[in-house]
Amino acid sequence: MVSTPAGESVDGGGIRAVSRAWRVLRAFTPERMSLTLADLVRETGLPRTTVLRLVDTLAAENLLESGADGRIRVGTSLIAFAAFADAAWTVPPASLARMQALAAETGETVSLYVRDGVRRVVVGQAPSPNTLRHAVQPGDELPMSVGSAAYVLLSLEPAAELDGLVARIVAESGGDPEAIGAGVAAARERGWSLTHGQREAGNSGLAVPVPSPGGRPPARTTVLALGGPTVRFTEDRIQGFVHAVRRCAEDIARTGLPPALY
Q1: CATH code 1.10.10.10 for 13-81
Q2: Prediction pTM value
């Protein structure tokens, strides 16, 4: 993480401008590949004059472009950046194959998570073979206030920093600090976490930490999680799930995580 120079507020002009520019870029999605200026104002919540200035600046760097129809689209400079990001965050083939084998064995979706500030991000996934399944995609950002993966990620944080981190999470996403603390304590004691219906009714999750392999450890703690309908997370299957997910986590620690994590 890049630190802020002493005496410089995180709300300083330069940092605020970067944050706002990022909000403009994030307004574009595969479902919204072109937007009007009014769309961007609505999606970002920024003043029209600010959005117009940011669009002009981003267009000058070919990060955005304005068409003759008045609509704004992502620019060509993002092509190389997207290719680099994909290479940096792609799960190595051997590890992805192992995750796919776990999905086939358990019938549930397998996801790899890291913490990014007060959110957790999906960095890899092997979907369940079942039609009724847990639906997340690589790149999805989820709250750290609920869920088995969140509790395991928090259980790996230094105890002295946990209260402050939980306070920031609650300020960002809501949640009950006591419930979060109880979930983290249980995950730390057992070495895994199981939750039912916390983020979405009828959905369950089970998560374990990915151990650090010999040699160079990853730059961030990583969690492997199983997700699916609660009706399939029956008591008689839980211990089998725990053993299967732990074996997979140990295997992918050896076969490798996305390059950006090293």
Answers
A1: yes
A2: 0.82
